[in-house]
UniProtKB/TrEMBL annotation:
GO MF term set: ligase activity
Keywords recorded for this protein, A-Z: Ligase
Family matches, as InterPro entries: GCL_type2/YbdK_subfam, GCS2, Gln_synth/guanido_kin_cat_dom, UCP012666
PANTHER family assigned to the protein according to its UniProt record, in alphabetical order: CONSERVED PROTEIN (PTHR36510:SF3), GLUTAMATE--CYSTEINE LIGASE 2-RELATED (PTHR36510)
Name of protein: Glutamate-cysteine ligase family protein
Recorded superkingdom: Bacteria
Lineage: Bacteria, Bacillati, Actinomycetota, Actinomycetes, Propionibacteriales
Reaction(s) catalysed by this chain's protein: L-cysteine + L-glutamate + ATP = gamma-L-glutamyl-L-cysteine + ADP + phosphate + H(+)
Length: 492
């Protein structure tokens, strides 16, 4: 959610004041765009990785407070579930060996943190959904102690007026009911941030939307939920349903969900923030004392805290971000498509593919979004969530094709050119994109390995279902710590 809140009850007056302040923020933001008041130095990137905590049996460990106390590192923060934490990687440059340095930094931080977490009887796993998480683990007591999560839970259920219904059809079928938003905590993701200028933002956001399906197909890592084998990236459907504040009647009326792919290509970042204010009521209507217009008039930078807080409760798969660092405002595309894991090197390969491909598409004189309907991009996204690395997607000039073939024949060369445009060293480029290439050639990503290993233990072996999931996750954790790319993981 990002912004801290300390209120526990909201009145009608609070909601009116918040709406008015969001509109005031929008006016200030529009003025800032007109006056070019944004940081425009070399592009920076940052990464957030959400982590699961497990005990010695590979079951969820509800110890995030104890683990964070043991780690004592501000880069690690609490998350919604008591079995989650998050690492925020400091922003860095893409060019040169920047991605390699980031990889080394992440590995060092995670290794050090995991060693300290072991003192609490816990270890960390980077995975899209924890396979050993079961329905008995998702009670309200699993919400982290931070008051903002309890408040968010209460506001979501006040808006819904009824329990959360999770219904997912995949290889197996799941239908469960939850009385809290804890199922949302099961969705652990990797978020890539890319700082861009206001002028470039719509091109990069559109490009990110266009490739989201391919990203998901190649990087899927969430085939299990509550003991069932469902979609290859079950996290997408789960998050869409777990964070939905609409009643059944509002869904029928076509009211937009808070977890949203979107509905159109954009021409300005303002389009997205304006949609937020037009379509979505406030979940956390906390207002500040800042008048952003007065702040601009005196030559300073407004925080736009209401705009940012509201934006943080609307979960676009590619989200716009306004932020202020050292009194300088900047804009970022936050790519939220991918799950966590399987390894740090896989994560960085996913990042290199994303950064390179969006750069080439954003620079193209005939942009991909002028050749492709928005609905086709959304279809690709959900098809990739269902089928993972076996997905077939649509691409202009190609038609419908296997995602792996599309990547090998067309998109990898584009990603390579994009990394060249960023100034990435050739050796770093080739090593990271080579991992994506091998995933496509071997037809193996995190989701396919999890499924194959589970069936080796359960369908072909003598393990019960729950023990097979534990055994699979134990081997997954060993490979994860070895930082061996997932396409090299054996199933035997």
């Amino acid at each position: 959610m990002g912004e801290e809140v300390d209120r526990v009850e909201f009145t009608r007056a609070d909601r009116t004041a918040f709406r008015n302040q969001v509109h005031r923020n929008l006016d200030a933001f529009a003025r800032m765009l007109r006056e070019s008041r944004f940081e425009a130095e070399r592009p920076m990137t940052g990464i957030e990785i959400e982590l699961n905590l497990v005990d010695e049996k590979c079951d969820p460990a509800f110890k995030n407070a104890e683990v964070l106390s043991a780690i004592e590192d501000d880069a690690f923060q609490t998350e919604l579930g008591r079995f989650n934490i998050e690492i925020n990687v400091p922003p860095g440059q893409i060019d040169g060996t920047g991605l390699e340095k980031m990889e080394q930094s992440i590995r060092a931080s995670l290794n050090a943190a995991d060693a300290k977490a072991s003192r609490t009887g816990s270890s960390m796993v980077t995975i899209g959904i924890l396979p050993t998480l079961m329905t008995e683990h998702i009670s309200r007591e699993a919400i982290s102690a931070n008051p903002r999560y309890t408040l968010l839970n209460d506001q979501v259920f006040q808006a819904r007026g009824e329990d959360v219904q999770i219904a997912i059809d995949g290889i197996e079928r799941l239908q469960v009911t939850a009385d809290s938003i804890v199922p949302e905590a099961a969705c652990t993701s990797t978020q890539f941030h890319l700082q861009v200028t206001p002028e470039a933002f719509p091109r990069y956001w559109n490009a990110a939307q266009a490739i989201s399906g391919v990203q998901l197909a190649i990087g899927a890592n969430s085939p299990f939920l509550f003991g069932k084998e469902l979609m290859r990236e079950t996290r997408i459907a789960l998050f869409e349903q777990a964070a939905d504040t609409r009643t059944h009647e509002l869904k029928t009326q076509g009211v937009r969900p808070r977890v949203w792919f979107g509905e159109r290509w954009i021409t300005s970042i303002f389009d997205l923030f304006e949609e937020n204010s037009r379509y979505y009521p406030a979940l956390l209507p906390v207002t500040s004392d800042e008048d952003p217009i007065v702040v601009l008039d005196r030559g300073d930078t407004p925080a736009l805290s209401e705009l940012r807080l509201h934006n943080g409760t609307i979960y676009r798969w590619n989200r716009p971000v306004y932020d202020v660092v050292r009194d300088k405002p900047h804009l970022r595309v936050e790519n939220r498509v991918l799950p966590a894991g399987p390894t740090v090197v896989d994560t960085m390969a996913n990042g290199a593919f994303y950064f390179g491909l969006v750069r080439t598409l954003a620079d193209d004189e005939r942009p991909i979004w002028s050749q492709m309907s928005f609905s086709a991009a959304e279809e690709n996204f959900h098809e990739a969530a269902r089928q993972g690395i076996d997905a077939e997607v649509f691409w202009p000039g190609v038609g419908t094709a296997r995602a792996t073939e599309l990547v090998l024949r067309r998109l990898l060369p584009m990603a390579s050119r994009g990394l060249d445009s960023w100034g990435v060293d050739a050796e770093v480029r080739d090593r990271l994109l080579g991992i994506i290439e091998q995933r496509c050639l071997t037809n193996r990503n995190g989701a396919s390995w999890q499924a194959d290993e589970f069936h080796r233990l359960y369908t072909k072996g003598s393990h019960g279902r729950r023990d097979a999931l534990r055994g699979m996750l134990s081997r997954y954790r060993d490979h994860m710590h070895a930082n061996t790319p997932v396409h090299e993981w054996p199933v035997d």
